[in-house]
């Protein structure tokens, strides 16, 4: 069987590795550089925290477990340090209390910490006076996405996959069996099946085959598809896990750096106008970091980016065979980092003729009539990606 995977981000690479290691002949076609889309600008927090409805929670919880299984003997890309969430006001406490109750009903591990225990967990942590509640989610963690991507692409190549970057797909032509994939450089690739996992370009690529995959695209500053990420210079700190607060989310990054996110600041995010590291926005990130962690007074923002989310029109993962073409399989998800290892296994199983029940509520056939559901709400709850 010959399978073409379109997209070499964190999801496409996971699927390519799974297929190649199953003995399938795999060719990966990537329009730019591998990981050049959402993979490179993700907060990369592995979690199922607060994800609704129940089937979407179950899918993400399975994704969390898949990360632990994949890294059970240690992996340089996965840090299973947990997630500490601080609720500093009454409204946030009520929201957190309700979420904790729902998560416990699902068997999702969560502990309630005192402020003192939170400080012991992260000695540099500044817990605000009057903090109402601190929750710890021990099975959550974070990923260094480019390190994960390198590992998956390496596994795919070792199993025989061919990987072509800077190779945009310009046509998907049905055949008697399977399809022909044509690229901008004039080449043609025959395939029994085509998997489109091209991030925020998935809808555009699938449309070449007449398939409808509705994804939201950036339309104005601060919409649901965009958000700032700030990377500091190297900082000496005790932080070893994800910490979320009403004013700042922070986690360890590579090389001793910290990765920062402040969801309320995203209202001005515009991928065409990214502030400089010496901007007022960078100074605000630095101020909030000092409020959150001791020993960060000299930390400086080294890099600001505007990440662009892969956002299905209803906010939920799209994964499964196209309703229009039997040889076409599509994948698009806002939870790509959490789901990547699970999708690598599940999509491989389905492309080879199996069935994964966890994916049943997320099939592209729900858009068969061509309608696009109402847009999901802008993610603004503490800790959301």
TrEMBL record:
Annotated SUPFAM superfamilies: FAD/NAD(P)-binding domain (SSF51905)
Keyword check for Oxidoreductase: yes
UniProt enzyme class: oxidoreductase
Molecular-function annotations in GO: oxidoreductase activity
EC number, as in UniProt: 1.-.-.-
Residue segments, region Disordered: 358-385
Annotated transmembrane regions: none
Keywords of the record: Oxidoreductase
InterPro entries in the record: FAD-dep_OxRdtase (IPR006076), FAD/NAD-bd_sf (IPR036188)
Residue ranges with Basic and acidic residues bias: 358-369
Compositionally biased residues, Pro residues: 374-385
Residue span, FAD dependent oxidoreductase domain: 3-348
Keyword Transmembrane helix annotated: no
Pfam families membership: DAO
Coiled-coil region(s): none
Matching PANTHER family: GLYCINE OXIDASE (PTHR13847:SF289), SARCOSINE DEHYDROGENASE-RELATED (PTHR13847)
Protein name: NAD(P)/FAD-dependent oxidoreductase
Organism: Saccharopolyspora cebuensis
